[in-house]
Amino acid sequence: MHMNAEQAVREHALGPEHLAGAMALSRAANWNQNEADWRLMLRLGQGFGLSAPDQTLLASTVVLPYETEFAWISMVLVLPEHRRKGYASRLLRRALAHLQDRRLTALLDATAAGHTVYVQEGFADCWGFQRYALSAKPAATRPQEPPDSRIRRLKDSDWPRLLALDAPAFGASREALLRALAQRLPEAALVAERGGELCGYLLGRDGREARQLGPLVAADAQLAQALLTRALRDTAAPLYLDILDRQTGLRDWAQQQGFAVQRPFTRMVRGAARAPGDPATVMLVAGPELG
Ligand SMILES: CC(C)(COP(=O)(O)OP(=O)(O)OC[C@H]1O[C@@H](n2cnc3c(N)ncnc32)[C@H](O)[C@@H]1OP(=O)(O)O)[C@@H](O)C(=O)NCCC(=O)NCCS
Asked: Hey, whose CA ends up nearest to atom 41 of ligand 1?
C-alpha cells in the first residue's frame, strides 16, 4: 500500500501553474517568499516539483544559474506531513544532474534542517550568515553618512558601475536578478559614492512576512551602515537583513538598532574548493534563495 502511494508521486517541472502550491510550501516553512519571488526565480531558473495524484505540490527545488560557472540551488521545501520520505534528496539529485549536464558548480545557503541533507549529497561548508529581524522601527537615528561620502537613490546611469562592483564580490554577473530587485523596493535601491567613485549599493524587496534588505556590497562597514540608515528611514518594518558572520561591526550595529537574530544559514559548495566571490565586501547577501 505504502509503496504504491509513493510510486504515484509525480516528478515534473515547476511553472506559473504551480504558484499556489509553491506559496503553500513557503508558508508551511515560515519562509518569506511571495508570489513575485517565485515568479522571478522560475523566470531566471528552472524549478522541479513532486506532486501527489490529487495534484497537491508536495516538494520543490529551484536551480538558478549564474553565468557559466555556477548555479544556486534553492527552495528545497517539503510539506511538513511529507518529510523524511526522501523527497528533498530525490529533487536535489534531479537538480544536481541538471547542473552536471551544464558543467555548473552547485552553491546553496543551508538551514540547519537542510544542512543534514546536503552533507549527505557531498556539499561542504564555506561560511555563515545570520538572518536579523526587526519587528518595529527604532526611534529616528541620526544620519551616519561618513563626511566624505554621499548616499542617494540608484539611477539608471549607475548600472555599469554597480555591476562592476557586484560581480567580483558575488563571483558572477547577476544583472537580470539585480535589475528585477531594483523594481521591487525602490526606496531601498541606494548607492554610496566616495570621491566620485561608486563604492557601495543596496537593494531590497517586499516579502510574505517582511521586507528584506540586501544584497549590500560596500567597501567598508561604515558605508554599509550609512546605506542601511537611509533605507531604515524610508522603509517600513518588519525588516530582514542577512548579515555575514564575518561582518562583526555591522552585526553590532544591527543589534543596536533593535534587530534580533532569527536563524543561521551556511553557504555550501559542491564540486569546488570554495564558494566564488569575495565575502570581504559582501555585507548582506540577497537571501538564501538567491545567493
Ligand atoms: C529540510 C527538508 C527539505 C528535508 O526534506 P525531506 O524530504 O524530509 O528530506 P529527506 O527525506 O530527503 O532526508 C534525507 C536524509 O536527510 C536527513 N534528514 C532530513 N531531515 C532531517 C531532520 N529534520 N533532522 C535530521 N536529519 C534529517 C536524514 O538522514 C534523512 O534520511 P532518513 O530519513 O532516511 O534518516 C524539510 O525538512 C523541509 O522542508 N524543511 C523546511 C525547509 C528547509 O529548511 N529546507 C532546507 C532549505 S536549505
From this structure: 29
